[in-house]
Each structure stands twice: as structure tokens, then as C-alpha cells.
Amino acid sequence: MATPHIGANKGDIAETILLPGDPLRAKFIADTYLENVKQFNSVRNAFGYTGEYKGKEISVMGTGMGIPSIGIYSYELINFFGVKNLIRVGSCGAYSEKLKLYDIILGMGASTNSNYASQFELNGTISAIASFDLLSRAKQVADEKNIPVHVGNIFSSDIFYNDMPKDWKKWASLGVLAVEMEAYGLYLNAAKAGANALTILTVSDSLVTKEETTALERQNSFTKMMEIALEI
Ligand code: HPA
Q1: Ligand 1 centroid distance, CA of 93 (Å)
Q2: Which atom of ligand 1 is nearest to the CA of 181?
Q3: Percent helix, strand and coil across the chain, each rounded to 5?
Q4: Whole-angstrom Cα distance, residue 66 to residue 74?
Q5: Is the pTM of this model over 0.85?
Q6: Catalytic residue among 12, 22, 103, 205
Q7: Cβ count within 10 A of residue 98
Q8: What pLDDT digit, counting tens, does each position of 130-151 carry?
Q9: Ligand 1 atom 6: the closest Cα is on which residue?
């Protein structure tokens, strides 16, 4: 049955899904890496596709930007379509001088300035963490392919244009590697429903050096990250 935001039938979506932020990147991934592709969603242009990679069924769908958006899509995918493994493939801004453009990060945990967790009425702060199984498998694949990866804490921000431009340095001082805008919501939705989630990121810009990549480079050049995500 279709949900408010995903116009698919149960069974149209594989147990494992790759989640880029950009729906056109989802199309690019389906066109480039998958066979026997069927589109399962176009509601709000959040394109979703199911196909085969090396004979195994896998889906890919754009989540939009930010925790509210990935929160909606991942909730429906897990709770209404039975998706078990959700792997976000995204971009991030580096907080550490050790990171160079196009470096890859596996988000072991996600910190945030979002109040997404307030819905659970916890009397403390929950740590949003990746699935150990997906994380260790991703690291294993990266090692086998000789692709260097950084593993650690990432920051899921609600703010892209921050009025406090140096705020990130406090998170960096605690070893947080990079900023993106979705992992925290994805990890908590997966935790609540007993699903598995992981975030794999490519560095698209650096808050340390102010280097940037272009949108076209971002869309097309993240092949190493895709090699890891697909092989998990
Ligand atoms: N901030 C937030 N999200 C991002 C960034 C950034 O600098 N780069 C890529 N995703």
C-alpha cells in the first residue's frame, strides 16, 4: 500500500536500500550500477528504484535534505515497506584537517543540534549509532578494495547557513569528523524499529580549508563510496 510520501506497493522495495540525498543521484546510481531497474516512486520527485546488483535485489531512493525529510522517508521505508538495511550515501563538510576532498567517512555515530529525539521523551541524551554489522562489513569491503576510510563521529546539523560560523570548531575539538544533515534521524528511526542503518559520506567541502567541489563533480565522482555501499 502506498504511504503519504511513497507511491509503491509492498514488495516493490528491496530489504536493502541506498539513500542518497539527491533524487537525481538515486537515478544516476540506478542507471549506472543496477540491472532490471524498476522505478517505485516519483511522489515529490523523490525518485526510488529497485534493481539488481550482481544478482541481488537492491533499492535506491533520494531522501531530500535534512533530518525531517530523511525522517519521513526512512520511517515509511522501515515501518510500512519492511526495509531492513538502510545505507545513506551522502556528502559532508570536513571538520578535521586530516580529511581531504573526496575522502570517505563511515559514520559510526551521529551527534546533532536537532531535537528529533525529543519525541521519545528521554530523560537524557541518546547516542545515535550505526549498525555494527553494516559498519564492520563496510570497513571490511573498504579494506579488501584498498579504499582508505575514516571511521568516527559525524555531526547531523539542522543548519547549513549558520549564523555562528565558528560553532563547528567545538564539535571538531571533540573529534567529530564532518558535518552533514541526515544521519542522526536515520539512525534513531532504525534504532526504534530494530532496523540496520549506516551512513557513508564523501567529503565535498572543508570547513577547515574552505575548499569545495561542484554539484556536477559531487553527482558523478563518488564512485569509491558507491563501490563500498553496493558490496555491503
Ligand atoms: N554542511 C552541512 N551539510 C553538508 C555540508 C556542509 O558543509 N557539506 C555537505 N553536506
Answers
A1: 5
A2: 3
A3: 35, 30, 40
A4: 12
A5: yes
A6: 205
A7: 10
A8: 999 999 999 999 999 999 999 9
A9: 93
